[in-house]
User: Which sequence fits this backbone?
């Protein structure tokens, strides 16, 4: 019903009449009708029948019947009753100035004074709908209303609403007399003797009502109550707080900002103080303090082409009672968030140049919540030059000569890093833990084809590291052939370089077996891609060469371990430790396999169609043999692949084969098996030993439903990145990202999916097996009822992992949700009935009870 009606000035029927009123405003009144246009004898009154239209200045009116009185400057419009169906159709649809389009049962309008009377109006105003009653527009643009229903339900006969017995609507406010709520045509006792509603075209400040409930540990509570502050059109803020009867409390500051087509982001600062245990205990007297800092910023891709700036910051208090565990994930009871043991943050700036070079600058951190370890990189810098042909001309024609195929590249990385614990970070010597350095990488390569089918690559790489700190160790040896050392960090510039050479060859081998063209299986195709490589690098671990130094004890003697001289790198633990290995002259080998079946397509009605089924996708084996290694020259052989058995089921698998045999040895009085430098066939073994193996798969009974849901989420993400979003949309999208169950699509009738992973490991003495199974799904019991669930199975404890059940009811303009965690340390339930529209987000009924216990 909210349609935009534009005046078509290019197509006018023969009944169009243009007149000029007698008012001093001297404005034209344009009118037309599809059925007929009649006039009174004195031609002062015009009667318009059938899709009638009148345009006067910025006032537009369409109706089934319109009467225009030129002398009185008045316009009356109403609908007409269909003689066949008896329905009242052709209701007046009108628009005045910048006001939205409205529909009514009838309207009287004075074209000179611009006064109007409207009966049975239905119009949309800033997310809300006015319907019924009478409205009278005054000359000063004030609107007097009587018995008008205000609701966020978009039906002409709404399911609920606020009945305004009488009121005055101005440009910036609505002042009413008695107001009461009506639900399904039943008046309720919820009402006010008078009310005042701000009416502005921008966000305004207001109170946010809290949600009551009960927690088994902290008592009754009022959660997330506070105040909303509409700062301006681009920035807002919410101050929220929660209080508990045992004296615990939480505070939050949430802010969203956006600039259309430029950028958007949000900030969330949280602080909590929780008292645990019984009153009078130390845990109760000394509450646990927790904090959380979250900042997200994204730039529109088209805002500044070639330059990007983004931020994703998440810092929380750590330890056994960190923020997530102590606050039950910010009172969301989200199991995945509570189990989080690490967080990462980054702020990055990147610039891409027209010649292909790019530069980036980033600051990042990684936290391990259980150990309180933190790693800061402030900042990291990278600069890359794309590979280019230094000996090839841009205007070269014909086939390239061999030296014109040589390519060279360059990359630079700078790092400032601090690895410490959060309790030591801000001490006086905190900055002394800073490690700074640069690394340079220059690859040189040349590729060519020989004998038509063999692809060769020849090249080398030079690496150099610069560090502004280094270490020195002072060793002490003891009579029992043991030793210890003291390490000191020394400031000063140190550099070291390394290089390597390599060559590789690869090709493809095709195999095909055809079967009967009338059979179900028509052909089998096998593609093998073998590759062989050779690499060489000298020994960069020699004491005195490069960054390595000999381990000398207090007497000036060399320390030996296992008959070999001990040495250390002065770059151990520095910003750029480099890649300085022992002597290497190795052959690498690999084999990649793809197997496909060509089968008859049952869905092809001609009987001649076929389709391909990938049986094995990328089954690869790889290993190497180092001629210069003192022992164990042959590496382990790794393999991985994927098999797609049906459109719904695919399996990923991987493993490692150890070619070395085992022998028995005695360790601390126990016989154990260890590797010996003898290959498996030297001990009459037919196959190498399988040391680990794993496979995983996921399966969806309704993959089309999953595709639709992912496509919808991708579309939302693209809209956020390219077109910009309002702060309400950004907040709702962030809520969906945090809780996927917040987005319920009733157009998807059902879905059930699960994932399973299996891991096996055996070192010759102990074998371990781990299994993980997770499942989730949803089903529409009716077109308006949906049930969702997610859980898993713990094979170690032989039981279900914490389960979450949710029930949703679509009530058109309202919705109802029930969330239940039936068992586990974080069992809880909540019931919420609320209005869908955000403009009445506080019109809700909530009940919540949690059983979070810090002692579990």
Assistant:
């Amino acid at each position: 019903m909210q349609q935009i009606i534009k005046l078509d000035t290019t197509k006018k029927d023969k009944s169009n009449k243009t007149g000029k009123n007698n008012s001093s405003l001297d404005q034209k009144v344009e009118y037309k009708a599809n059925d007929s246009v009649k006039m009174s004898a004195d031609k002062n009154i015009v009667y318009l029948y059938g899709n009638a239209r009148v345009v006067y200045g910025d006032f537009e009116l369409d109706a089934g019947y319109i009467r225009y009185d030129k002398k009185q400057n008045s316009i009356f419009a109403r609908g007409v009753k269909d003689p066949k169906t008896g329905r009242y159709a052709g209701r007046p649809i009108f628009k005045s100035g910048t006001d939205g389009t409205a529909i009514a049962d009838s309207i009287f309008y004075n074209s000179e004074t611009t006064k109007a009377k409207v009966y049975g109006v239905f119009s949309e105003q800033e997310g809300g709908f006015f319907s019924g009653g009478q409205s009278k527009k005054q000359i000063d643009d004030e609107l007097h209303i009587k018995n008008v229903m205000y609701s966020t339900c978009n039906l002409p006969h709404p399911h609920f609403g606020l009945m305004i017995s009488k009121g005055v609507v101005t440009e910036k406010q609505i002042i009413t007399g008695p107001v009461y709520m009506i639900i399904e045509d039943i008046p309720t006792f919820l009402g006010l003797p008078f009310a005042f509603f701000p009416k502005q075209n921008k966000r305004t400040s207001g109170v946010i009502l809290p949600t009551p409930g009960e927690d088994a540990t902290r008592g009754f509570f009022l959660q997330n109550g506070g105040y909303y502050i509409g700062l301006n059109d681009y920035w807002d803020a919410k101050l929220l707080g929660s209080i508990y009867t045992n004296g615990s409390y939480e505070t939050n500051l949430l802010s969203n900002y956006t600039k259309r087509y430029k950028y958007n982001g949000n900030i969330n600062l949280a602080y909590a103080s929780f008292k645990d245990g019984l009153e009078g205990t130390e845990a109760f007297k000394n509450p646990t303090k927790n904090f959380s800092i979250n900042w997200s910023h994204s730039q529109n891709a088209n805002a500044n082409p070639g330059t990007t700036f983004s931020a994703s910051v998440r810092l929380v208090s750590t330890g056994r009672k960190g923020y997530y565990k102590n606050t039950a994930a910010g009172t969301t009871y989200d199991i995945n968030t509570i189990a989080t043991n690490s967080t990462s943050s980054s702020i990055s700036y990147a610039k891409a140049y027209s010649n292909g070079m790019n530069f980036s600058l980033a600051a990042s951190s990684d936290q391990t919540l259980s150990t309180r370890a933190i790693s800061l990189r402030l900042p990291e810098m990278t600069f890359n030059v794309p590979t280019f042909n230094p000996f090839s001309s841009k205007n070269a024609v014909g086939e390239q000569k061999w030296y014109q195929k040589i390519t060279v590249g360059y990359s630079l990385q700078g790092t400032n890093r601090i690895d410490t614990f959060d309790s030591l970070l801000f001490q006086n010597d905190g900055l002394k833990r800073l490690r700074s350095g640069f690394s340079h990488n220059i690859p040189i390569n040349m590729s060519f084809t020989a004998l038509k089918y063999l692809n060769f690559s020849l090249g080398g790489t030079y690496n150099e590291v610069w560090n502004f700190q280094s270490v020195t160790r002072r060793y002490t040896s003891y009579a029992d052939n043991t030793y210890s050392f003291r390490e000191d960090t020394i400031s000063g510039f140190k550099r070291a370089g390394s290089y390597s050479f390599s060559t590789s060859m690869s090709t493809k081998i095709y195999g095909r077996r055809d079967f009967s063209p009338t059979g179900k299986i028509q052909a089998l195709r096998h593609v093998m891609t073998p590759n062989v490589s050779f690499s060489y690098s000298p020994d960069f671990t020699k004491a005195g060469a490069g960054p390595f130094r000999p381990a000398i004890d207090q007497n000036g003697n060399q320390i030996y371990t296992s008959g070999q001289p001990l040495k250390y790198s002065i770059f151990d633990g520095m910003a750029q430790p480099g890649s300085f290995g022992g002597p290497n002259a190795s052959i690498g080998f690999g084999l990649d396999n793809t197997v496909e079946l060509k089968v008859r397509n049952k869905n092809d009605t001609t009987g001649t169609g076929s389709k391909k089924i990938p049986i094995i996708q990328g089954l690869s084996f790889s290993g190497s043999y180092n001629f210069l290694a003192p022992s164990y020259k042959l590496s382990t052989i790794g393999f991985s692949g994927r098999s797609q058995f049906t459109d719904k089921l695919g399996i990923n698998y991987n493993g490692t084969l150890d070619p070395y045999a085992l022998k028995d040895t005695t360790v601390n009085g126990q016989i154990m098996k260890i590797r010996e430098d003898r290959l498996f066939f030297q001990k009459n073994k037919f196959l190498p030993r399988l040391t680990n193996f794993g496979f995983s798969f996921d399966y969806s009974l309704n993959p089309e439903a999953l595709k639709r849901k992912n496509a919808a989420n991708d579309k939302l993400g693209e809209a956020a990145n390219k077109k910009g979003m309002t702060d309400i949309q950004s907040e709702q999208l962030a809520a969906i990202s945090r809780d996927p169950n917040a987005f319920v699509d009733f157009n998807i009738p059902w879905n059930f999916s699960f994932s399973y992973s299996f891991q096996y490991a055996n070192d010759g003495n102990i074998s371990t097996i781990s299994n993980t199974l997770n499942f989730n799904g949803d089903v529409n019991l009716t077109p308006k009822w949906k049930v969702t669930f997610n859980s898993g199975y713990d094979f170690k404890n032989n039981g279900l992992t914490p389960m979450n059940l949710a029930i949703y009811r679509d009530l058109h303009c309202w919705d109802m949700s029930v969330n239940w965690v039936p068992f586990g340390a974080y069992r809880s339930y909540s019931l919420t009935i609320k209005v869908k529209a955000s403009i009445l987000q506080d019109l809700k009924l909530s009940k919540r009870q949690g059983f979070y216990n810090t002692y579990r």
